[in-house]
């Protein structure tokens, strides 16, 4: 399953801000943290943290669960894995192919250089 272009845009937009990336890191280590828990780590207002949380939730990077009057937050790493699969895996295969091409070219060059050096090392034969 792949993310739609619109969903990918939302994930990249959410990841484009350092505060939101830090929030994801916090939720990775503190599953079930509340908004107040998260707000303690930032020098911005709680409302600003809520806006960042809204962007992350819209990108489906966090999910929340209401328990009584408390809203618990959890990281949803599935979109990150899908982005990784789509971009990093594809480009890793691209670069692996390019590196193999370079390896073969360098090996061919080394063989040709060795052959050329070997032929010039041979003493000339007298008729």
Automatic annotation (TrEMBL):
InterPro entries: ArsR-like_HTH, HTH_ArsR_DNA-bd_dom, WH-like_DNA-bd_sf, WH_DNA-bd_sf. SUPFAM superfamilies: Winged helix' DNA-binding domain (SSF46785). Transmembrane segments: none annotated. It comes from the Bacteria. It holds the Pfam family HTH_20. One of its GO terms (molecular function) is DNA-binding transcription factor activity. Coiled coil: none annotated. Residues 1-95 form the HTH arsR-type domain. This is Helix-turn-helix transcriptional regulator. It comes from Synoicihabitans lomoniglobus.
